[in-house]
Amino acid sequence: MATVELRFSAQPEHVRTARLVAAAVARRAGVDETVLDEVRLAVGEACSRAVGLHRVNGLTAPVRVLLTEEEKTFSIEVADEVPVAGADGAEAGTASGAASAPGVDEASDGGGEDQMGLAVISGLVDDVEVSSGADGGVIRMSWPINPAKVTS
Q1: Is the pLDDT of residue 110 over 80?
Q2: Rg, the chain, Cα only
Q3: Eight-class DSSP state of 30
């Protein structure tokens, strides 16, 4: 299992870099070329959401992106450090419920924009999980890989 970790300051100009890195690592992992644009867009939405949450809440902590190649899947986790008030642990939503994911504090981040971003992500990615809790939130997305297409 190969993992790439990317951390960047919560500045909008760094989102483009995260998208480019995600697409390059996904290509190398063997994600089908036809879905690389979806990977790029989904990572851009998730990173923009995390940057927005950090900025609105005055956090200086970096946004964290984990890109993991497993045997049959390639996954990306985008994590923010914005705690959900009153969260006693992680609450999770799935692709079908991501647009109204439980645990997302709408008052802290403009609500409507956040929900729209989650809806876009769930429309782009078949396998997505959104969780949030006292330590922040994570959007985990994954795509199948074709091991025969892995480039070195």
Answers
A1: no
A2: 15
A3: T
**pTM of this structure:** 0.80
Architecture per CATH, 2-149: 2-Layer Sandwich (3.30)
Report the C-alpha gap between 141 and 78 in whole angstroms: 9
| 128 DSSP β-pair partners | 141
Please identify which residue in the block is written with the tokens 């647009």. Answer: 99
54: helix, coil or strand? helix
What is the percent of the chain with per-residue pLDDT over 70, rounded to a whole number? 77
- End-to-end C-alpha distance for the chain, whole angstroms: 15
Both tokens of residue 9?
């300051």
- Which has the minimum average pLDDT: 20-24, 97-101, 115-119? 97-101
